[in-house]
């Protein structure tokens, strides 16, 4: 049976969350409803005939609070609200469009509370042209952590919370999950989970998301990811 994919847009209005300025929206894809957005994100997504969500991004778009004091927060992001008092698992296949000049091009997942309190999980191109798993944890300013190099064009990313601890995993085949980062869940009871495409250096790019899933499934072994 062919899976049904829905992408629906509603009129937007300004709302506030934390110290950020977000717009309300109603974007539905693969059973997930995105109700908040940043930087005109709803107009930049479309669903292709094969069911993948294509997320466009313009020139020099990023989300980062540099330790040197400069901040850029113009990347488009779609958010869905979740109850952080119960476990959740957020998973997708990410296939960014990498180019020789596209340093830091990436497809990303987010945990977001405000513009200065969030976490980014990315499949990203580094300064040497390598494609690698990257995490950025922001509490006032951002850290920036480069992890494993991935030789294939896509990766599976997963964010899991058991309410006390948050774990980030990636996979090459959607079966074996590799732990990337583990830290205390000190976010509020209501948070936003998001998807985004970024292009900090180049003139624009896109990323495909596929098999996006959000559930309350529990991970039995948090270090093994299953």
| Percent helix | under 10%
Distance between the termini: 28 Å
State mean pLDDT (0 to 100 scale).
Answer: 92
What's the shape? globular
The total count of helices amounts to 0
Write a brief structural summary.
This protein is mostly beta strands. The protein has strands spanning 14-17, 20-29, 32-38, 45-47, 53-57, 63-65, 71-73, 77-83, 88-96, 106-114, 117-125, 131-139, 141-142, 145-149, 155-161, 165-171, 178-184, 190-198, 205-215. The chain starts with 13 loop residues before the first strand and ends in an 11-residue tail after the last strand.
Labels describing this entry:
ten-stranded antiparallel beta sheet, 226 residues, mainly beta, single chain, globular
Q: How is the secondary structure organized here?
A:
Layout: E1 14-17, E2 20-29, E3 32-38, E4 45-47, E5 53-57, E6 63-65, E7 71-73, E8 77-83, E9 88-96, E10 106-114, E11 117-125, E12 131-139, E13 141-142, E14 145-149, E15 155-161, E16 165-171, E17 178-184, E18 190-198, E19 205-215
Antiparallel strand pairs: 1-2, 2-3, 3-8, 4-5, 5-19, 6-7, 8-18, 9-15, 9-19, 10-11, 10-18, 11-12, 12-13, 12-14, 15-16, 16-17
Q: Can you give a write-up of this model?
A:
It is globular and about 40 Å long. The chain contains no helices and 19 strands. It has strands at 14-17, 20-29, 32-38, 45-47, 53-57, 63-65, 71-73, 77-83, 88-96, 106-114, 117-125, 131-139, 141-142, 145-149, 155-161, 165-171, 178-184, 190-198, 205-215. It is an all-beta fold and 226 residues long. Strands 1, 2, 3, 8, 10, 11, 12, 13, 14 and 18 form a 10-stranded antiparallel beta sheet that branches. A 7-stranded antiparallel beta sheet has the order 4-5-19-9-15-16-17, with no helix packed on it.
């Amino acid at each position: 049976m062919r899976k049904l994919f829905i992408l629906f847009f509603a009129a937007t209005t300004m709302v506030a969350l934390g110290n950020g300025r977000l717009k309300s929206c109603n974007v539905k894809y693969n059973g997930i409803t995105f109700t908040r957005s940043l930087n005109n994100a709803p107009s930049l997504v479309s669903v292709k005939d094969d069911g993948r969500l294509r997320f466009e991004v313009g020139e020099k778009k990023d989300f980062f609070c540099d330790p040197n004091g400069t901040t850029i927060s113009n990347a488009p992001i779609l958010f869905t609200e979740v109850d952080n008092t119960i476990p959740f698992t957020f998973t997708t296949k990410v296939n960014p469009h990498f180019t020789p000049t596209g340093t830091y091009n990436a497809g990303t997942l987010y945990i977001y509370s405000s513009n200065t309190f969030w976490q980014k999980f990315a499949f990203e191109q580094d300064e040497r042209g390598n494609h690698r798993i990257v995490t950025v944890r922001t509490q006032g300013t951002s850290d920036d952590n480069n992890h494993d190099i991935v030789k294939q064009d896509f990766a599976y990313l997963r964010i899991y919370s058991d309410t006390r601890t948050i774990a980030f995993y990636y996979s090459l085949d959607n079966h074996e999950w590799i732990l990337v980062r583990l830290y205390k869940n000190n976010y509020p009871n209501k948070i936003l989970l998001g998807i985004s495409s970024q292009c900090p250096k180049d003139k624009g790019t896109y990323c495909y998301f596929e098999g996006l899933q959000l559930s309350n499934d529990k991970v039995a072994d948090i270090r093994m990811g299953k």
